[in-house]
């Protein structure tokens, strides 16, 4: 008998993390392990290596979630996949109310910020910051709180018998979040992917000493090996003021060639760390294109 | 008689934007033009070109403030300077109260999020999301609200006669924000800086078509011209799924050589736009080093 998969998510059931987990594994038959913080996801995976972790890593509006990069880098866990989700915010409340009945809206600060424009029409509604979107809805249901609303995904409305009293209230519709699927069994997962010839992306972190053109050299070597990039971000290392850290995502067709390129750039970098090798998300940040294009058509530079 | 300088800031007096404005211009004699939103800063500058704008552009914890990059890129205004500020959060309330008296804390969602750890000890305190840090303090003072606190800088405490009831409550002390000083009189400012031989940094935005090694080529050309980088960030252009946008900061010693390098990379890029030429902030992201090192020691790659 096949065991039900378990996925550790930040926040409660009904959150975008649960939506991403189910979409990535393409099944409803997956048990959510609810964690209060991203740190708790990492410690859960370390205690039980059969559990997968789902973590938001970047968003088209706010950029990279740097804290999660740091946790990942320091954890020893690896990325085994990615999923890109269009984020929509719904206003949920106990059934039978309208927005005029609402005096407080509770949600995660990011969700509150992303719906600020909508609430300008309702200055009598207090915006209250909480740890999670979906759990704000659960709290309203559990305590049968009239006059209170939560900003959360539609899945939370279904889960907690709440009514959507305002739909898609996010200011900017071009709001996509990229989630990483992480695991403590990285090696086994990668071997499975390799057998299926499905590894075509990896995420690296490294630092570079202060020296003229040091990044240019690394990128030139990768180009010589026909390795493409789909992300690059530099960060100053606070406390080490002459050094930078770089997060880059590589996309490639030939796994062996990719391994050779790592050997070739290692001497040019410092503390090169492979955060994981996985298969490119078929879904693009664009709402329209949801088809399965060939790798050579994936966006890279 | 010399006119008093005016600086448009986001939020109210006493905010980090005011602190950055005064520190950059190295004077207390500067009039703040308070704006509710970053959009309002840009429209203020377009109406009155004598006003400078101060906008937060990146933070060591949350990364780039992408929305402000977009506003800047579309505005036609230019960067004339930068300032890097260590962010500290104070808990402010009407005098004579202790934290046990507080039932609600009001601030900007980012400040609430950055102090979440502190408030875990006080689960009875509701965290309420507002447009601005300092203005939350002003609102408490104006309405003489006991039991309410605001998260804001020390300057707001001085300005609104509030007491600091908990000091430096930010979870992470390595919290620095880089502010840009923007202006509608970019050309005049740059000419003044050029005369003083003080232009040694610039910010560019461009896109690259999907083609192998396209970024590597641009960086190689810059390296040939001895131009260093101090920042690079790629962003997928939502809606144009095979294209990326890049924000890069260049640092250089020789202004003419820099101009030549722009001509050299232009044919390799698309929509290359110069967001401004200015003088590197002498202050580093590090709290310790506040000395005026020579440019060649500035952090670059």
UniProtKB/TrEMBL annotation, chains A, B:
<feature type="domain" description="Prephenate dehydratase">
    <location>
        <begin position="6"/>
        <end position="184"/>
    </location>
</feature>
<feature type="domain" description="ACT">
    <location>
        <begin position="203"/>
        <end position="279"/>
    </location>
</feature>
<dbReference type="InterPro" id="IPR045865">
    <property type="entry name" value="ACT-like_dom_sf"/>
</dbReference>
<dbReference type="GO" id="GO:0009094">
    <property type="term" value="P:L-phenylalanine biosynthetic process"/>
</dbReference>
<keyword id="KW-0057">Aromatic amino acid biosynthesis</keyword>
<keyword id="KW-0584">Phenylalanine biosynthesis</keyword>
<comment type="pathway">
    <text>Amino-acid biosynthesis; L-phenylalanine biosynthesis; phenylpyruvate from prephenate: step 1/1.</text>
</comment>
<protein>
    <recommendedName>
        <fullName>prephenate dehydratase</fullName>
        <ecNumber>4.2.1.51</ecNumber>
    </recommendedName>
</protein>
<keyword id="KW-0456">Lyase</keyword>
<dbReference type="GO" id="GO:0004664">
    <property type="term" value="F:prephenate dehydratase activity"/>
</dbReference>
<keyword id="KW-0028">Amino-acid biosynthesis</keyword>
<dbReference type="InterPro" id="IPR001086">
    <property type="entry name" value="Preph_deHydtase"/>
</dbReference>
<dbReference type="Pfam" id="PF00800">
    <property type="entry name" value="PDT"/>
</dbReference>
<feature type="site" description="Essential for prephenate dehydratase activity">
    <location>
        <position position="177"/>
    </location>
</feature>
<dbReference type="InterPro" id="IPR008242">
    <property type="entry name" value="Chor_mutase/pphenate_deHydtase"/>
</dbReference>
<dbReference type="InterPro" id="IPR002912">
    <property type="entry name" value="ACT_dom"/>
</dbReference>
<dbReference type="GO" id="GO:0005737">
    <property type="term" value="C:cytoplasm"/>
</dbReference>
């Amino acid at each position: 008998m096949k065991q039900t998969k378990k996925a550790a998510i930040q926040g409660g059931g009904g959150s975008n993390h649960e939506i991403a987990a189910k979409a990535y594994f393409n099944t409803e038959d997956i048990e959510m392990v609810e964690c209060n913080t991203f740190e708790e996801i990492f410690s859960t995976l370390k205690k039980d290596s059969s559990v997968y972790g789902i973590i938001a890593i970047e968003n088209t509006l706010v950029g990279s979630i740097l804290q999660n990069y740091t946790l990942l880098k320091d954890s020893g866990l690896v990325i085994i996949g990615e999923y890109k989700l269009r984020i929509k915010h719904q206003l949920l409340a106990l059934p039978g109310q309208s927005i005029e009945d609402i005096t407080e809206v509770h949600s995660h600060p990011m969700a509150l910020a992303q719906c600020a424009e909508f609430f300008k029409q309702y200055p009598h509604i207090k915006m209250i910051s909480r740890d999670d979107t979906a759990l704000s809805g659960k709290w309203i249901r559990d305590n049968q709180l009239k006059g209170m609303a939560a900003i959360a995904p539609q899945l939370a409305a279904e889960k907690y018998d709440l009514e959507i009293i305002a739909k898609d209230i996010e200011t900017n519709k071009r709001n996509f979040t990229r989630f990483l699927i992480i695991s403590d069994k990285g090696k086994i997962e990668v071997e499975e992917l390799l057998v299926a010839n499905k590894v075509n992306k990896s995420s690296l972190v490294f630092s570079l000493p202060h020296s003229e053109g040091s990044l240019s050299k690394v990128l030139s070597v990768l180009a010589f090996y026909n390795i493409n990039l789909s992300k690059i971000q530099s960060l100053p290392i606070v406390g080490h003021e002459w050094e930078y850290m770089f997060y880059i995502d590589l996309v490639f067709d030939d796994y062996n060639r990719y391994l050779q390129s790592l050997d070739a750039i290692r001497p040019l970098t410092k503390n090169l760390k492979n955060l994981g090798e996985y298969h490119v998300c078929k879904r693009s940040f664009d709402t329209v294109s949801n088809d399965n294009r060939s790798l050579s058509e994936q966006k890279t530079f």
